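User: Earlier you gave me the apo prediction for this protein. Now I'd like the version with pyridoxal-5'-phosphate bound, so I can compare the two side by side. Same sequence as before, with the ligand SMILES added.
Assistant: Got it. Here's the input I'm using:
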Amino acid sequence: MKKIDLRSDTVTQPSDDMRAVIAAAPVGDDVYGEDPTVNKLQTYAAELLRKEAALYCPSGTQSNLVGLLAHCERGDEYIVGNAAHTYLYEGGGAAVLGSIQPQTLDLNADASMDLDKVRRLIKPKDVHYARTKLIALENTHNGRCMPIDHPSAVRALADEYDLSMHLDGARLFNAVVKQGANVKDLVQHFDTVSICLSKGLGAPMGSLLVGRADLIEKATRWRKVVGGGMRQVGMMAAAGLYALKNNISRLADDHANAQALAEGLRAIEGVSVDMAMVETNMVYVTVTKEHRTRLEPLAAAEGIVLPAGTTMRLVTHMDVSAADIGRVISLFQK
Ligand SMILES: *Cc1c(COP(=O)(O)O)cnc(C)c1O
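And here is the structure of the complex with pyridoxal-5'-phosphate:
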């Protein structure tokens, strides 16, 4: 029986084709800038996003961190959503390792920021305050796509106060596919963008920080400082390049599967689905405590892996087929 793991889109197995390009990748020492496959991936990503440069990092946590470190110095501040990954799920790295103060605010459900709120949070230039330096956004956020015109509105405000902009685009390509947008248009207003190759795109590891050449140069130094200078890592970069070339448009399948899952589950009595959240590959489903307890052994028997809790985030990905969605719906029906 095939295992179905809905905890995250990070659980995918590399395909045979991806394993073949990994095995065949020419490599060199990337700390010397001599890994031809890493260089190819970085150039490809920079061109794809129409940015000056890109930097391959082992994880999205690190590409966000070195991005923030490139923008901000000790005593600077970044404005960020209080449920944003960079603030909430990265161990407080910006503050812990960079002495960068986070100024948080509630995000709107569609991942946008209330710009009046942001304006009030920007500190005056005065010795009493941290120096507001950067606004960090996230797309997608909890599976929701940022409205296409939001970044340009943020940019106008940022320019007024001489702030820079970073995008945590771990799942940016889900928004690209969902909104039928060109990736360069979604990122044009950002100075730096972090994208994950290891989520829906299906690579075993890796993220890219893409953006202005001067910032990427600083980030390269910080990547070494935090231990992210890797050597013959072209083998993994090859998987990332394969993912960018082959696995973007198929994200539409994950979105269709999430939609089918949401519709199947909401029809079941006692199961509630937050339909407003179903835009890309995530479905938030709530069951009673009693049902959750009963679900546990049934799921285990079916080889279906669910996250803990009575409100579960179910994530579709390339190792979950349309037929698998049927199996998950039957599980909840039982
Ligand atoms: C997954 C994720 C990251 C980075 O995660 P890593 O596990 O460190 O690669 C960053 N931001 C968001 C929104 C994410 O979902």
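For your comparison, keep in mind: The pocket of pyridoxal-5'-phosphate is lined by residues 59-61, 64, 85, 138, 168, 170, 196, 198-199, 207 (CB under 6 Å).
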